[in-house]
Amino acid sequence: MNILLLGSGGRENAIAKKISESAKCDRLFVAPGNCGIAKYAKNVDLGSDFSEIKNFVLKENIQMLVVGPEQPLVDGIANYFLEDKSLQNVILIAPSKEGAKLEGSKDFAKLFMQRHNIPTARYETFTKENFMQGVEFLKTLTPPYVLKADGLAAGKGVLILDDINEAISELKIMLFDAKFGDASAKVIIEEYLSGIECSVFVLTDGKNYKILPVAKDYKRIGEGDSGLNTGGMGSVSPVPFADKNFIDKVEYRIIKPTICGLRDDNISYCGFIFIGLMNVGGEPYVIEYNVRMGDPETESVFPRIKSDIVEAFIAVGEKRLDNYQLEISDNTAVCVMLVSKGYPEHYEKGKLIKGLNSVESFVFHSGTKFDANNNVISNGGRVVAITALGKDLQEALAKCYADVEKVYFDGAYYRKDIGKDLL
Ligand code: AMP
Ligand code: GLY
In this structure, are strands 62-67 and 123-126 parallel, antiparallel, or unpaired? Predict the structure, then answer.
């Protein structure tokens, strides 16, 4: 079958590679794609207008649409396809607009968890109208204080503050000065959860589900988890503390009630659920839902999937995921992200990237493009992810860092401590 994947990051590079390996895949297109993806698929520029995507799907006889990032999901691409007769036979790996609210509105996600008894931090939601109650609620909590913009804020909408006066002042700026635009017209204030985070991924057809490998993401720019938050500096899969006992708790307390909750609430959902979890003394709590795979988690999760992913996607489309066998490799995957100097603040693009051909492990491009001479140059903050598989974490780390050292561009930076906390 012909498949269209939307997105342009390392996540889509890892998904595109996996799709291209399927015997079921004839032609794979990625919109807009990147240089790394060009090795596995044809990059096409379709813009974000759904009608352009529709025209392309009809012209190229696309039979499956896989959506990488959240924005088209929150904008309702699945509903657009489901409501158009000419697109009704396209298999969608894309939850509905209502389902995408699990990521698009933190208030919606919190109400969903409350309604379905899913463990999460205690919280309340505030607007301009009840700002003073927000201040009172903050005073009932102990520091640090967690403030979250309700809507999508490019991963920047969460503030964690130690000082009550600062928390009150930020709440005011979020609500009255639109610190995160419309996204902070509502603000969630929640209890701080102390523990270690991990990311659990589920593929669901809305009724049945498969749990994908668990990963840990390294979000801060600096070693020892210091400095500014980024889109992710590396990832590891599996995560030693997420053992069978922990994942059983996640499955029974979180995954099952989530899938049942979607069904009970009549929310159509075919695609990935990314559950950001805090392990608080061995007990899992949901920090957030995302309605897509994580980046850079996908770069360590997908290389561990042994089964044919297109067959899994077809099973989702046919709502028979219960009959699909998902095979996972026992290997450990380590992914290290090379980023531009200055990232996540101001950085320069257009740097020539050398050494990619000597890498023995996987190279997943995040922000790259071809220059006029067909050289690969940097085109983003996160530039390339290197993923290695090993029989254990130690071996995967050694292989990954040996490869990372072969890649060079002016100002390249990477964290040298990915996965070391798990040894
Ligand atoms: P989010 O955008 O919801 O993923 O939040 C960003 C980050 O803030 C998370 O990855 C956590 O590290 C942190 N965070 C969010 N909520 C809480 C909480 N209730 N307690 C502790 N840390 C949190
Ligand atoms: N790695 C976190 C995310 O994709 O949102």
Answer: unpaired
What residue segments make up the domains of the chain, in order of their start?
Answer: 2-97, 122-190
Q: Please give the CATH number for the structural domain made up of 122-190.
A: 3.30.1490.20
pTM of the model: 0.96
CATH class for the region spanning 2-97: alpha beta
Q: How far is CA 31 from CA 53, 303, 421, in A?
A: 9, 22, 36
CA 229 – ligand 2 centroid, Å: 11
Q: Which stretches of the chain score pLDDT less than 70?
A: none
- Verify whether ligand 2 is closer than 6 Å to residue 238 (CB atom): no
Nearest to 143 by CA among 188, 189, 109: 189
> Side chain identity at 11, as an amino acid letter?
R
Q: What is the four-CA torsion angle of 238, 239, 244, 250, rounded to 10 degrees? A: -110
Residues of the chain by 3-state class (helix, strand, coil), percent to 5: 35, 30, 40
| CB-ligand 1 contact for 188 (6 Å cutoff) | no
* Ligand 2: nearest atom to the Cα of 297: 1
Q: Which ligand is nearest to the CA of 121?
A: 1
Q: What is the pLDDT of residues 125-135, one digit of tens each?
A: 999 999 999 99
**Distance, CA of 78 to CA of 67 (rounded, Å):** 9
Ligand 2 center to residue 294 CA distance, Å?
A: 4
